[in-house]
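Q: I have 164 residues here and want to know how they pack in 3D. Can you give me a structure?
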Amino acid sequence: MTIQTIDDLPTPALILDRAILSRNLKRMSDRLRSAGVMLRPHLKTAKSVQVGRMAVEGHDGRITVSTLAEARYFAKGGFKDILYGVGVVPSKLAAVSELRRQGINLRVVTDNLGVAQAIADAARNGDTFSVLIEAAPACPFPSCRACSTSRVSFTRRLASSSRA
């Protein structure tokens, strides 16, 4: 099939204006650097190693993905510090462990005590994990007693379950 126009492209297809992309990436990079913030771009839309490399240029190479397929793809492309930015489920821990055994610092997130327990159980079997745990519900009111109580309760239950 010869592609004549944009309408002839098989979809989905990524179409970028390199000049605009470069300008936007530079602006993002400069703003974060001046604010003293580490860059970890989310590459779920671009799904491109080349765009990922452009996005982390001048930074330490950390990225975020939304699927383990994306994590595998970017790992093969040379990215070594990857955040799987979707709450991990126990059925995916074996795939996470496999990537970690390949030298990828694949980090996972959870806000669920049962999942945290499953991660702890897998770790007892010799696997290692880098886990970010959200221990409080999102709440716009900093002094909210319900959220504060919830956070303390979750943290205590997590701590006691990890000692088991």
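Q: Anything worth noting?
A: The longest strand covers residues 81-87. The chain has two domains: 14-133, 137-164.
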